[in-house]
Task: inverse folding
């Protein structure tokens, strides 16, 4: 794993030099004053690099991370977004599981709603987010809650589809066995279907976590927000601060990875019988 | 509604289709009456009496319509029940928006959206071509192709699996909105930058799922192949590929919805002036929300069609898998 | 629907509230058009110097990202807002009952910027060039300028062979300039400095102020909804919506006058309120430096037109009429806005003058 990382870094350096030198050359040709004279010298110190030099990125990363809990620092804003996402995920899990039970329970319900559930996922949420926020704002729902709700809106679908597949996953043999035990429909559900769906729940929650994170960031970009990664993205993208965008991307990536990792841990706690195979 | 239909589903099988149609028609009639009742009034000029009447009609119409639909949906397959449900909802929404006099600059009525859809069809179809064909589809195919290749390589060469696969899992959890501005910045405003965003979002789920799928092949079966002296290539085709298919299709389905969202989100960070995401952004700024919703409708139709094609392929190739079985 | 009951109630409440007025400030939410920056210096100064408090208002200034302030105000998430005139008029056309109550900037700060080396000196030469503009209603000034010189753009979906190729980009000139476009839209107070930060000093740039070419589509103004103005008892304060609006406008104009007269102090006040939103780009990244530039430029937009005649905050009728005509010529407005689009009474109440 480390070797691959080292290899990737080794490839990054010449690539970065090459693309940045090109950009620097064009700027110099246009008569820009960059504080350096040759394209190759400029490549590592462009203010708006195509790819940032590691030293640049390191500096920005440090500058934007301290003090960690100041409202302007990235770690603080990451935590805000994390909170919204987690709440969104909880709402999405409840909604998703309920929906999955309804989908599996009633063919009629599935036929009427499933196509529209899928359709709702293809609706570009970034367009919907401001409208949802507007509608929610009318009822006094403001602050972090609309972001969590929008996150939940994006995340519930993978959960519903995954859990529905999970509820249907038990082997016919196992079902037959329970039938011979004269188990009722509910008993089959509690003792067989639900446990069988748990691994599916976690697999889809991992997908949903990333989706929810996208949702909360998009919501922060497009609604009234005082903090969060999305707000930082919006303001830095307007200020053409490429390095800041990279730093925020790194933190966003870190947050996404952390969320999935936490879910992985939870999975092992809740479904210990799968621990051996889940990796 | 959910629990109600479940209860109905569990009840006496069948029911009378005639009754279903009747209830549905009655519901629809009530809803249409509700719309007609408040049809031609200025936004703030709906008389309170008419508003109240329309609201009552909508509640009654929805109740009757849902009841009818619940009966019908148990007997019908295909998309008809879903379409009927949409029809009911749309008419009800039209009635509600008109009764409350909601300005079209906030939420346009379905008829307005339909009109916009028709009037701006050339522009919107051009946008759809850019967003769907160039950005989403090309990006999707590239992402899936690369993903499968990398997954095959990872299974074939264990050092890759140990060295690179953990990263794929990590990259799969990067939120695309954080990635989009950086990529648009690096690759420019034209469509390729969006296709790259789509490819990246689709790539990682494919890699992770396909590798997991290829490894999910039962060791028993693999041993069996060895006993039969089947060549490794044939054993790969006969055992590993089939067991990987459900996982692959899972990734393909997730990817199909991610692809369109990726393309549209990418467009929000810069385009040269075409695309559904661009249209949504520019028309929202002009308060032409009817065109915004028309673009959303097109994106949704494309998304559903895309998902439908993948599901059809999945059905065709993995009909044997337990999760596709109809419940008994 | 039960207005009679409501007004009776209001009257009763108003009587009781009058005695307790001054005890608590009226909470007012004011929606800015973007994240905090010197573009809104007057508001921040009015808040910091206690001008709003002195009027009995407890004002919260709300930031916003990629959403129109109109939407938050129209739905009641905010009570008042600031936006551009095209935004307001197009919103009204779509049935949103928003009303203009005060005009802060008397002059448009919209420019198109080219490199001097491109040898563009006159808008007549724009034919066949590529122009970078912001979408979402922020492209109108550029389109109006081109139209004035008989050119069409690719933004108009009915034109087959546009004479100018428009490239939309999201508020970051470095994405397109100068590689992908010959001209780029820039506000005097923001993006021009960002382009300087990219390494192109002002003497290398050719800046076309659209207001110099007769396109003066007005920018930052204050607005609210008709419903708020009609409200007889704003948030149970005992004051009518119109009174609250007048107090808000009065304190805001005071804030702006102070900010423009004491720019250094105003910049400091703004800097306290913004996190990363205040910084410039490239070599001009320092927040203090960029906001000082912004304050200087914004002051020029404020100190123009009616402000110079001692009528700060007044919407100039001739300019408004010209704006409406331009927007109608462009087909952006289908018909002239009704008289209710602009409310001069609030300004008259706020200043004690008569709006001419």
Result:
């Amino acid at each position: 794993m480390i070797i691959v990382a080292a290899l990737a870094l080794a490839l990054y350096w010449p690539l970065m030099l090459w693309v940045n030198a090109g950009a620097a050359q064009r700027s110099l040709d246009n008569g820009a004053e960059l504080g350096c004279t040759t394209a190759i010298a400029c490549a590592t110190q462009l203010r708006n690099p195509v790819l940032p030099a590691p030293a640049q990125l390191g500096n920005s990363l440090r500058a934007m991370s301290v003090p960690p809990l100041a409202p302007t620092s990235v770690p603080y804003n990451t935590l805000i977004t994390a909170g919204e996402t987690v709440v969104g995920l909880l709402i999405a899990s409840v909604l998703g599981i309920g929906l999955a039970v309804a989908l599996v329970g009633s063919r009629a319900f599935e036929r009427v709603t499933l196509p529209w559930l899928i359709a709702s996922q293809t609706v570009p949420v970034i367009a919907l987010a401001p409208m949802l926020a507007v509608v929610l704002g009318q009822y006094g729902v403001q602050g972090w809650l609309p972001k969590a709700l929008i996150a939940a809106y994006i995340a519930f679908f993978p959960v519903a589809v995954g859990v529905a597949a999970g509820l249907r996953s038990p082997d016919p043999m196992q079902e037959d066995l329970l039938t011979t035990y004269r188990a009722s429909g509910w008993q089959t559900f509690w003792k067989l279907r639900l446990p069988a769906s748990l691994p599916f729940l976690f697999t889809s929650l991992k997908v949903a976590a990333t989706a929810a994170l996208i949702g909360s960031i998009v919501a922060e970009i497009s609604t009234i927000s005082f903090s969060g990664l999305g707000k930082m993205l919006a303001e830095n993208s307007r200020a053409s601060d490429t390095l800041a965008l990279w730093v925020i991307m790194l933190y966003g990536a870190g947050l996404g990875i952390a969320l999935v990792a936490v879910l992985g841990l939870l999975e092992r706690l809740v479904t210990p019988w799968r621990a051996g195979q889940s990796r | 509604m959910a629990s109600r239909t479940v209860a109905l589903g569990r009840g006496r099988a069948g029911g009378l289709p005639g009754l279903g149609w009747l209830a549905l028609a009655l519901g629809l009639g009530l809803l249409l009456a509700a719309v007609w009742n408040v049809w031609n009034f200025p936004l703030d000029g709906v008389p309170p009496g008419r508003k109240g009447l329309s609201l009552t009609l909508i509640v009654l119409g929805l109740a009757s319509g849902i009841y009818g639909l619940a009966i019908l949906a148990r007997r019908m397959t295909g998309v008809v029940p879903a379409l009927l449900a949409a029809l009911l909802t749309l008419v009800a929404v039209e009635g509600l928006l008109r009764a409350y006099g909601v300005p079209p600059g906030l939420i346009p009525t379905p008829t307005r959206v339909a009109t916009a859809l028709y009037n701006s069809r050339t522009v919107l179809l051009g946008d759809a071509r850019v967003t769907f064909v160039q950005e989403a589809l090309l990006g999707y195919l590239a992402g899936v192709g690369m993903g499968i290749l990398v997954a095959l390589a990872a299974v074939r060469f264990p050092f890759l699996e140990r060295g690179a696969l953990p990263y794929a899992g990590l990259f799969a959890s990067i939120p695309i909105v954080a990635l989009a501005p950086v990529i648009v910045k690096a690759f420019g405003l034209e469509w390729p930058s969006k296709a790259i965003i789509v490819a990246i979002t689709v790539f990682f789920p494919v890699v992770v799922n396909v590798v997991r799928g290829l490894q999910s092949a039962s060791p028993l079966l693999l041993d069996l192949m060895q006993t039969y002296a089947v060549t490794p290539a044939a054993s790969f085709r006969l055992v590993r590929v089939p067991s990987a298919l459900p996982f692959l299709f899972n990734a393909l389905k997730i990817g199909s919805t991610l692809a369109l969202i990726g393309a549209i989100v990418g467009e929000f960070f810069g385009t040269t002036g075409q695309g559904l995401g661009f249209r949504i952004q520019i028309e929202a700024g002009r308060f032409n929300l009817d065109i915004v919703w028309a673009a959303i409708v097109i994106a949704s139709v494309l998304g559903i069609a895309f998902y439908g094609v993948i599901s059809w392929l999945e059905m065709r190739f993995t009909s044997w898998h337990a999760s596709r079985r109809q419940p008994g | 629907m039960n207005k009679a009951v409501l007004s009776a109630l209001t009257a009763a409440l108003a009587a009781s509230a009058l005695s307790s007025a001054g005890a608590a400030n009226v909470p007012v939410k004011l929606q800015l058009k973007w994240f905090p920056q010197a573009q809104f210096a007057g508001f921040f100064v009015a808040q910091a110097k206690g001008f709003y408090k002195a009027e009995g208002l407890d004002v919260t200034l709300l930031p916003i990202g990629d959403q129109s302030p109109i939407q938050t105000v129209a739905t009641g998430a905010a009570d008042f807002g600031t936006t551009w005139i095209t935004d307001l008029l197009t919103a009204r056309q779509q049935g949103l009952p928003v009303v203009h109550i005060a005009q802060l900037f008397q002059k448009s700060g919209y420019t198109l910027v080219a490199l001097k080396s491109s040898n563009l000196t006159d808008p007549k030469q724009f034919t066949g060039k590529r122009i970078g503009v912001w979408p979402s209603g922020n492209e109108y000034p550029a389109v109006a300028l081109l139209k004035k010189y008989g050119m069409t753009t690719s933004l108009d979906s009915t034109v087959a062979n546009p004479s100018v190729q428009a490239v939309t980009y999201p508020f970051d000139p470095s994405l397109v300039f100068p590689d992908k476009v010959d001209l780029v839209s820039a506000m005097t107070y923001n993006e021009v400095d960002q382009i300087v930060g990219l390494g192109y000093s002002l003497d290398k740039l050719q800046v076309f102020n659209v207001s110099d070419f007769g396109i003066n589509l007005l920018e930052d103004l204050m607005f609210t909804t008709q419903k708020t103005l009609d409200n007889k008892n704003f948030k149970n304060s005992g004051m009518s919506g119109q009174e609250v609006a007048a107090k808000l406008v009065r304190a805001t104009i005071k804030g702006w006058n102070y900010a423009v007269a004491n720019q250094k102090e105003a910049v400091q006040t703004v800097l306290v309120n913004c996190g990363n939103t205040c910084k410039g780009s490239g070599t001009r990244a320092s927040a203090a430096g960029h906001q000082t530039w912004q304050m200087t430029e914004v002051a020029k937009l404020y100190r123009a037109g009616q402000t110079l005649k001692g009528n700060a905050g007044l919407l100039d009728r001739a300019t408004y009429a010209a704006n409406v005509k331009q927007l109608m010529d462009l087909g952006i407005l289908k018909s002239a806005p009704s008289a209710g689009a602009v409310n001069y009474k609030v300004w008259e109440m706020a200043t004690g003058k008569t709006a001419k």
Notes: The mean pLDDT of chain C is 86.
